[in-house]
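Hi all, a correction to my earlier message: I attached the wrong file for Ring-1,2-phenylacetyl-CoA epoxidase subunit PaaA. Here's the right sequence:
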Amino acid sequence: MTSPADAHDADAQRAFDDLIANERRIEPRDWMPEAYRKTLIRQISQHAHSEIIGMQPEGNWITRAPSLKRKAILIAKVQDEAGHGLYLYSAAQTLGITRDEMTDQLIDGRARYSSIFNYPTPTWADMGAIGWLVDGAAICNQVPLCRASYGPYARAMVRICKEESFHQRQGFEILLALMQGSPEQRVMAQDAVDRWYWPSLAMFGPPDDQSPNSAQSMAWKIKRFSNDELRRRFVGMLVPQAEALGVTLPDPDLRYDADQGVTAMGEIDWDDFFAVLRGDGPCNAERIQRRRTAHEEGAWVREAAAAYAAKQAAPRTEAA
Ligand code: ACO
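and the right structure:
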């Protein structure tokens, strides 16, 4: 016999399935399957952590930017990444996880963040390559997320994508200035492209046949395209842009047909990708340690903010 609770769950599941099938948004007040909630918490919190950890590789160059204008732009960009992290933590909180829990998962090393932020930034040209390649890959992956089925995530992504598009252009412009500069500057720009190209392709995630989450996330319309589809689309966008810059993409197997897009490309070093995911990348330990230290050093700010909030919330007579 069906119990009233079972009947309610079946009705709620039907309502959820209808919303998804009709391209409507799931909102925090709506019933959702537990696995959908968990998947969103996983993806959105990983995304938020990536934005926050992603401030470090570029933060490394704020004090050494080559001009006041470049410094101001870089500060604004790194600050935007902090803002993206905050929108995303807020979106994840609507699913019933707290900011403290997410932060603990990150600094304890239990949470993932994007593989791409575990590589070093030894030269100024890395600021250009990160903007052009890393933020370019982020846009390619994230524009479809503006249509994700979960309302708070999709809405956060709209603003994030607008800002990422500015980031991508500023990176392109840094590389363009270097490519129009001295022979040493051109070598520096090409070297940065050589180092960031493959990790930026790996950012899209493992190949489709090794991506355990894609099928379900696509059925729920969280992801709209597979990892390989987005990767291929990204490379197709890069080819004419590389030509305009005058840089070479470091893939001798790349075949590009302007009408059909990318027809062939070389193999990504997946061993390197999975090593970074296990925590064995060139900068994993440094990134987490830096985040942990910042968290500890910020304890007094959180305590002061909590004390101020408690004071504001206290009844007026008591405050008087
Ligand atoms: N870095 C670290 N971990 C990754 C990466 C990556 N580049 N790609 C995949 N993984 C992890 C997944 O998180 C998953 O691990 P988990 O199950 O323990 O969580 C595992 O590898 C298998 O991958 P998939 O099954 O393909 O996982 P998923 O369907 O979540 O797809 C993707 C991964 C494409 C990154 C997806 O989560 C996504 O689109 N996220 C939102 C965008 C984002 O987080 N971007 C980060 C960069 S932000 C920036 O550039 C500023």
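Sorry for the mix-up. The chain has a mean pLDDT of 96.
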